[in-house]
Specification:
homodimer; mainly alpha; 434 Repressor (Amino-terminal Domain); two-stranded antiparallel sheet; 5 helices; DNA-binding
Amino acid sequence: MKNSLKVQRAKQNITQAELAARVGVSRQTINSIEIGKYVPSTLLALKIASVFGTSLDDIFKLEESDWH
Amino acid sequence: MKNSLKVQRAKQNITQAELAARVGVSRQTINSIEIGKYVPSTLLALKIASVFGTSLDDIFKLEESDWH
DNA sequence: TCAAAAAGACAAGTTTATTTTACATTTCAT
DNA sequence: ATGAAATGTAAAATAAACTTGTCTTTTTGA
């Protein structure tokens, strides 16, 4: 599973802390997701997509290995 | 958070068991998601969307209350 | 240029929610 | 009416999300 959080943030000039505040989680949670430490819950992922004004599918993408 | 799993299944004439098998979880997991007992992980949600050939956003939708 | 502020990374622990296992009920064709 | 297929429920186990705390790196503005 890969995500384009960092790119999206860059596009919109939003810091990790700011994004975290807007979706109601800790700053470190956003950071951990960004570096691929874990995948956010569907709820959080949808909120993030909503903040960016895009779709979840646009930010989070399955990889071949996710099916193994 | 609401989802249209049941409708999607009906459209494609797929049973809970069949969908479960295709995404690699138990039948009850699909059932529980369908009746809104809980929201699947992003990974599973993406797999389900993939099986239905649609987007996650099309199946799972945030509700106003999810932001509280 | 340098100190303070902001952002990024990491580890450990807690909590929460997902998922499974096992059992019960319903639906439906015959 | 009956057996098989499909669906529903609940408790318990497990896994993963998320937080807190700390440290490092980068940015910035005076």
